[in-house]
């Protein structure tokens, strides 16, 4: 704890390294950004925290590697306090790895986190950390594990903690995270002071090796989190890819009766509408659930003299004009359309349609939303303006 640390004016001399940490690209890591934007589901958290369990379970080995590097018995005594807390103090059942086992069970229903299919990137991340600690000197090892590791834990866990609270998880179930948010700054202070104490009063002479070690720790974690994020994203489309490669039909042809629909609005499911008459915006969208897996047919209807709002999304769309006459605006392009015409709208391009004729403009939009809905931040409503009326 704080009272046991070597007395070095840490907050003054260590500040330059804290600033270095704050500038590292890890704070723009897509996994942390997705947590902050509440784009991840409980299942996503369960998946990546189960991977993280491998690191958490092995953490005392990292601490021990630093201890091994310290020749000064006083430093080893200080580190033993960190280890003591990691080990649950008097109650070994309360050791931090066990608190995470309990959280995995209580929050994600993962009863055997030790049996997780740990990915290669998870194992490599831990091995690289251990390798660095074993092969550097005690200043580098302490910098790696202080500023570069323990020093960022409270911040990182706060992203996870807040994200899980927002998903409705009770704070009591997140004790593993909250304990670290409370104690890891103290743990970091102990380790950082070990690094600084060994500089013999000449921090500048060792600044280079300290900075290199800090960046090594943060780079490794940044790459690890990127791999996790990539995995979370692709895992969602894996069943689709497996089915396509395995030539498995999505639905049984016994269900063929539901594979048809009339294009009448009444036979669709209302998806959303928006009326902002002062801006000339008025439209309704219905979806046809006719068994498609990836394609998602929708009917867009715009009354005479009106348009829909300008928006963009991950799915691409093929517009087919069913009735009426209009103009489709795609980026800087403006395309006049009439009955029977097709228009392609690429992904992530601002677009809107306006009714320039008489009567309703009806457009059948076939999108690949069945694929892109698996990607974060592409729900049906995330890209719409606030004032819409959500129907379904
Ligand atoms: Fe811990
Ligand atoms: Fe659209």
From TrEMBL:
InterPro entries: Cupin_2, Haem_Oase-like_multi-hlx, PqqC-like, RmlC-like_jellyroll, RmlC_Cupin_sf. It comes from the Bacteria. Residues 299-366 form the Cupin type-2 domain. The keyword Oxidoreductase applies. Gene3D superfamilies: Heme oxygenase-like (1.20.910.10), Jelly Rolls (2.60.120.10). Keywords: Oxidoreductase. This is Iron-containing redox enzyme family protein. It comes from Pseudoalteromonas fenneropenaei.
């Amino acid at each position: 704890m704080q009272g046991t640390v070597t007395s070095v004016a840490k907050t003054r001399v260590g500040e330059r390294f804290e600033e270095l940490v704050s500038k590292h690209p890890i704070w723009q890591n897509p996994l942390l950004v997705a947590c902050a934007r509440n784009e991840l589901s409980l299942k996503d958290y369960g998946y990546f925290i189960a991977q993280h369990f491998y690191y958490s379970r092995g953490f005392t080995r990292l601490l021990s590697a630093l201890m091994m590097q310290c020749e000064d018995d006083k430093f080893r005594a200080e580190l033993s306090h960190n280890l003591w807390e990691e080990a649950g103090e008097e109650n070994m059942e309360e050791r931090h790895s066990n608190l995470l086992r309990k959280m995995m069970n209580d929050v994600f229903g993962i009863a055997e986190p030790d049996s997780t299919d740990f990915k290669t990137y998870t194992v490599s991340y831990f091995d690289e950390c251990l390798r660095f600690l074993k092969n550097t000197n005690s200043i580098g090892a302490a910098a790696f594990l202080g500023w570069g590791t323990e020093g960022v834990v409270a911040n990182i866990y706060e992203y996870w903690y807040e994200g899980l609270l927002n998903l409705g998880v009770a704070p009591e179930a997140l004790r593993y995270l909250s304990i670290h948010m409370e104690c890891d700054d103290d743990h970091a202070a102990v380790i950082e002071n070990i690094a600084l104490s060994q500089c013999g009063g000449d921090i500048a002479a060792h600044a280079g090796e300290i900075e290199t070690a800090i960046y090594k720790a943060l780079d490794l974690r940044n790459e690890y989190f990127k791999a996790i994020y990539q995995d979370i994203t692709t895992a969602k489309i894996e069943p689709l890819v497996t089915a396509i490669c395995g030539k498995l039909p999505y639905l049984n042809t016994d269900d063929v009766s539901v594979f048809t629909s009339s294009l009448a609005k009444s036979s669709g499911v209302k998806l959303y509408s928006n009326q902002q008459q002062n801006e000339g915006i008025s439209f309704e969208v219905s979806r046809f659930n006719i068994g498609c897996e990836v394609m998602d047919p929708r009917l867009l209807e715009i009354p005479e003299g009106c348009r829909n709002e300008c928006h963009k999304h991950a799915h691409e769309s093929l517009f087919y004009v069913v009735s009426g006459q209009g103009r489709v605006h795609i980026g800087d392009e403006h395309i006049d359309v009439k009955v029977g015409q097709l228009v392609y709208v690429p992904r992530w391009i601002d677009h809107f349609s306006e009714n320039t004729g008489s009567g309703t403009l009806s457009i059948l939009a076939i999108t690949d939303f069945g694929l892109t809905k698996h990607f974060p931040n592409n729900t049906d409503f995330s890209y719409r303006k606030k004032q819409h009326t959500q129907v379904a």
